[in-house]
């Protein structure tokens, strides 16, 4: 194998690795904020109905869209935004479940 061919193969492999990392980072959604809640965030939380609550346990239910994408399993509500996949970024457990 020639030196030029080796360089081409290495370049292609690096580009494939880089592109897969970009796709992975983009598909995971924005990061969920951690830590303390600011005064501004508290004002938003005080809005009636926000943040939206999850009225059931999450154990064994890691993928919300299995039930909520079409709303056909057990009469669960259909999500109005199936393109958002990081549900716990906005939705919180009800106080009774915390």
Mean pLDDT: 76
Question: Radius of gyration, rounded?
Answer: 21 Å
**Given the helix and strand composition, which structural class is it?**
mainly alpha
Number of strands: 2
Give a short account of the largest sheet.
2 strands, parallel
Secondary-structure topology with pairs:
Elements: H1 3-27, H2 39-45, E1 53-54, H3 65-68, E2 92-93
Parallel strand pairs: 1-2
Could you characterize what this model shows?
With 98 residues, this protein is mainly α. The chain has one domain (3-29, 38-97). Helices cover 37% and strands 4% of the residues. It is built from three helices and two strands. The protein has helices at 3-27, 39-45, 65-68, and strands at 53-54, 92-93. Strands 1-2 form a two-stranded parallel ribbon. Helix 3 (65-68) links the parallel strand 1 (53-54) and strand 2 (92-93). The longest helix has 25 residues, at 3-27. The chain is elongated.
Which characteristics define this entry?
98 residues; elongated; 37% helix; two-stranded parallel sheet; mainly alpha; single chain; 3 helices
Brief overview, please?
The protein is mostly helical and about 100 residues long.
């Amino acid at each position: 194998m020639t030196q030029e061919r080796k360089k081409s193969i290495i370049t292609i492999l690096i580009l494939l690795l880089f592109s897969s990392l970009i796709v992975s980072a983009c598909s995971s959604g924005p990061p969920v904020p951690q830590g303390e809640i600011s005064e501004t965030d508290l004002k938003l939380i005080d809005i009636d109905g926000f943040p939206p609550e999850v009225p059931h346990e999450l154990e064994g239910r890691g993928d919300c869209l299995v039930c909520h994408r079409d709303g056909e399993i057990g009469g669960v509500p259909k999500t109005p935004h199936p393109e958002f996949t990081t549900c716990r970024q906005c939705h919180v457990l009800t106080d009774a479940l915390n």
